[in-house]
Amino acid sequence: SAVISQKPSRDICQRGTSLTIQCQVDSQVTMMFWYRQQPGQSLTLIATANQGSEATYESGFVIDKFPISRPNLTFSTLTVSNMSPEDSSIYLCSVRTTGSYEQYFGPGTRLTVT
Amino acid sequence: GNSVTQMEGPVTLSEEAFLTINCTYTATGYPSLFWYVQYPGEGLQLLLKATKADDKGSNKGFEATYRKETTSFHLEKGSVQVSDSAVYFCALSAGSGGGADGLTFGKGTHLIIQP
Known about the structure:
The complex is a heterodimer. Chain A is mainly β. Chain A is built from no helices and 11 strands. Chain A has strands spanning about 5, 10-15, 20-25, 30-35, 45-50, 55, 70, 75-80, 90-95, 105, 110-114. In chain A, strands 2, 4, 5, 6, 9, 10 and 11 form a 7-stranded mixed sheet that branches. Chain A has a 4-stranded antiparallel sheet with strand order 1-3-8-7, with no helix packed on it. In chain A, a hairpin with a 2-residue loop joins strand 7 and strand 8 (about 75-80). In chain A, about 35% of the residues are buried. In chain B, a hairpin with a 2-residue loop joins strand 7 and strand 8. By secondary structure, chain B is mainly β.
């Protein structure tokens, strides 16, 4: 399985500001995804990060709020823009390789917005 | 759309008891099914998977069988340990292997094992 790291591991931010979360994988992967886990809740898919093109967003998530970049096969960023307390969550990236069914998750970024 | 329904906890059992966590799904096509586990203070780990009907996934004494006729993927373990205390998530991927689909998760089941 791939080794996935995320930065930062946690942060406390003021409302109205933005935070960029980085996801780095130790090998080239086909698919990268971003999820949100709100306090005490399950995981919800935000978007699929596509290399060299715009991300594919799920219903309820928009690019202006959650811009995503994926410049190569091992790295992606998620920005949480104009934050409000409702954005307080754990944000996780995950990866899947070609022909594989498994999806592996990074350790997550715990975001608190005050 | 796709959805996963699993029993919500907390589920409290004594050590060495038999465990079943129910999971049913709704999906178009032929999804792949997964169980993930989140131990206290740790990240999300893949526990087991099944990619087609009647497949049985197994790992660490846990098993789950992909039942297409009942659209279910129940998690079982014959004798639980205190170290199994965690939150368990059932999930599906509606795309075929290597496809572009993310995962749809159930709400998670908090399992507590008492010594």
